[in-house]
UniProtKB/TrEMBL annotation:
The chain crosses the membrane at residues 12-35, 47-69, 90-115, 127-147, 168-186, 192-212, 245-265, 300-318, 339-363, 375-394, 401-420, 432-454, 466-492, 498-518. Pfam families: Polysacc_synt. Its main location: membrane. It is a multi-pass membrane protein. It comes from Candidatus Fimihabitans intestinipullorum. Keywords: Cell membrane, Membrane, Transmembrane, Transmembrane helix. GO terms for cellular component: plasma membrane. This is Polysaccharide biosynthesis protein. The keyword Transmembrane helix applies. The keyword Ion transport does not apply. The lineage of its organism: Bacteria, Bacillati, Mycoplasmatota, Mycoplasmatota incertae sedis, Candidatus Fimihabitans. It is found in: Cell membrane.
Length: 546
């Protein structure tokens, strides 16, 4: 079985991530059409709770397993390597069972906290059911992830990537086909249809796990034959191995849990907050569906750029950091920030302008959902900077700082969500904008804090990045101004899906041309990519003579 170099591994992993994101984005079109707004809200309740418990039971340990196995494999400690895999498997199965039982037992209490005093819409029984169903995934996902970590520890990247794609494909098939058959063929309840949909996570993971076991069984001898074997392997106790796994896993667990908890705040506060302010069940559940599930899918169009930048940034920053090359750290960090500004700002504002046709393409026309999405998509900007910088400081062994930033963001989000909703309501702004304003505020403050700390501790200078960001904002403003004039003659608000596709293509094309021409004229692209790379690109697309 072929081992992959770092660059090959990064490329394979990135391709897998992109494929999974595409699959995860496309399926929402038929799924939303099948289950509607109320079903979407019910689906989001289950998944947001599942995410936090999945983080508790799963995150960090697969990464730790990969690291420990890689370490022992490099030293030729074959017995210690296999013992580490076995111990991690036992620990993670135990955690999965424990958190599965917690979710099953406390599902009614969690459902009660989510729904508050809402009248109409989803019921306590329905939310309890879907939480209990999705909890079954906790019995499979952790052990499947550890098995992925085993392959990654041997620098074998294709099986884990294939497993992720298989898992996503099977999950999507179960979600769409299962909910359709339940509602349209057997005419079962909406709760049952959503229950089948969330069970897709369990089925998908089970299929992926069997695939990994099959590959492992088939290639186990080859892996052992190619492994380095030490002439003398010291006896490493189970206690030592367990300590090492926990030491490597803990920072990732804490950070992932805080990220999931941050996303769960809206699920726990929006419904009860809006209900207390007098909003009806339809408005409340539409708002939480958009904020917690549907708009998040579309945000990934922009946020995936940050993911790509992070994948390439981390090894480069790590290299400069290890050498204590602070100028290199500053240069690479600024390159990342400039690339984020150059891409996420125009894309997010462009999608905000085209909120109506984009929403119609994926979900059909709904005035309230479009209204929320128009503001929500701007979170993609702060989220991209936020995630990139948190990953960066973690790469530089500033785990405590990362945990502090995430913990502070979570606490601020939790404390401010409802008060800002009430503030919006009191000054005549729709209260469902409140959670979005809170996220924009907390993430912006977190980004600012990290930038200040990086400047203080590593002498990172931002002058060029600030100037470039101002240029990007001005060019984006001009682009939006011209598109607004176009809107007077060709309205963007349409209700037909085919018309929405045509409008989106037209406006996106015109907007991209305006942005690219102005960006090139004002040397924005040259500053980020450099003249040589840009000249090669222009020659390849025949916009400049060789």
């Amino acid at each position: 079985m072929k081992k992959n170099t770092f660059l090959e591994g990064a490329m394979i992993a990135t391709i897998g991530i992109i494929l999974c994101k595409i699959i995860g984005l496309v399926y929402v079109i038929p799924f939303y059409a099948i289950i509607g707004t109320q079903g979407g809200a019910l689906y989001s309740y289950a998944y947001s709770i599942y995410a936090i418990f999945l983080s508790l039971s799963n995150s960090g340990i697969p990464v730790a397993v990969s690291k420990v196995i890689s370490e022992y494999n490099t030293l030729g400690y074959v017995k210690a390597k296999e013992r580490a895999f076995q111990m991690a498997s036992i620990v993670i199965i135990g955690l999965g069972i424990f958190f599965f039982l917690v979710l099953v037992i406390f599902a009614p209490t969690i459902a009660s906290v989510i729904l508050g005093d809402i009248q109409g819409g989803n019921t306590l029984e329905g939310v309890t059911l879907v939480i209990r169903v999705v909890a079954t995934a906790l019995l499979i996902v952790p052990i499947e992830s550890v098995t992925q970590g085993y392959f990654q520890g041997h620098k074998i990247m294709v099986p884990p990537t294939m497993a992720n794609v298989i898992e996503q494909l099977v999950r999507v098939i179960v979600i769409v086909a299962g909910s359709f058959v339940a509602l349209q063929v057997f005419h079962l309840s909406l709760e049952t249809a959503v229950g089948i949909a969330v069970f897709g996570a369990t089925i998908g993971c089970l299929v992926a796990y069997f695939y990994l076991l099959r590959v492992l069984k088939k290639n186990k001898k080859k892996i052992e034959e190619t492994a380095l074997v030490a002439s003398h392997e010291p006896r490493i106790s189970r206690k030592t191995i367990l300590k090492k796994i926990i030491y490597y896993a803990l920072p990732f667990v804490m950070i992932d849990v805080m990220n999931s908890a941050y996303g769960m705040v809206d699920t726990l506060t929006v419904v009860s907050g809006l209900t207390d302010l007098g909003y009806d069940a339809v408005t409340t559940e539409t708002a939480i569906g958009v904020i917690a599930t549907w708009a998040t899918k579309l945000n990934m169009i922009v946020a995936s750029i940050a993911l790509g930048i992070t994948v390439s940034l981390i090894p480069n920053i790590a290299s400069s950091y290890v050498k204590k090359n602070w100028k290199g750290v500053s240069r690479k960090m600024n390159q990342a920030l400039q690339a984020l500004s150059l891409t996420t700002i125009p894309m997010a504002f462009g999608l905000s302008f085209l909120a109506a046709p984009v929403w119609v393409i994926f979900y059909g026309y709904n005035a309230l959902s479009i209204d929320i999405f128009r503001l929500y998509i701007l979170q993609a900007i702060t989220f991209s900077f936020y995630t990139t910088l948190v990953n960066l400081i973690q790469t530089m062994n500033r785990t405590k700082l990362g945990m502090g930033i995430l913990g502070g963001s979570f606490i601020a989000k939790y404390l401010l969500n409802v008060p800002i909703m009430k503030l919006c309501y009191s000054i005549g702004i729709p209260a469902y904008y409140g959670p979005i304003f809170t996220t924009l505020l907390t993430q912006s403050v977190s980004v600012l804090l990290i930038l200040i700390i990086m400047r203080k501790d590593y002498q990172v200078a931002y002058r060029k990045t600030i100037v470039l960001t101002i240029k990007v904002l001005l060019i984006t403003g001009v682009m939006l101004g011209i598109l607004s004039i176009m809107n007077l003659f060709i309205p963007v608000v349409v209700q037909s899906r085919w018309m929405a596709i045509l409008i989106t293509i037209l406006y996106a094309g015109v907007g991209a041309i305006i942005y690219c021409v102005l960006g090139y004229r004002h040397h924005v692209f040259q500053e980020v990519f450099g003249n040589d790379i840009l000249e090669r690109i222009l020659r390849k697309i025949h916009l400049k003579k060789a």
